[in-house]
Amino acid sequence: MRRDSRLSGVLHVLLHMAEFKQPVTSERLAVMMQTNPVVIRRIMGGLRDLGLVASEKGHGGGWTLCCDFDRVSLHDVYLALGAPELFAMGHRNVAPACLVEQAVNAALATAFEEAESLLMARLGDVTLGQLSADFHARFAKRERCAQEARPDVA
To answer: pTM for the full model?
Structure first.
């Protein structure tokens, strides 16, 4: 079964964009994400509609961030993607009058609702600013480790 990785991909793109001072083209983002520029434009359109990014056409144009990373949660980005289905699993609805099917579906519905509620709450608790800070901490640690691994050259 195929997984929907758009949320992860969009978060990846947004963090990369935060590192650029100039607009970033769909083509450049597509190379970073190993996808087609059309896919990037489609995804970025939803982000633009919610005011997370802006776009400029023409020479020197591209996508820019226009949101405060500390105020935008992962839940906001999830909604900008159109709130895709979270779980690939679902109910069996072959015989709705079947009491066994009803019992199974009721149990699964409760479990799915609880899991979705927990996930939505967690997505609401994490901001793009927190993701960016985590990235920068990881980058700094990698740089420190790389410097410690290099012998001093006199």
So the answer is: 0.79
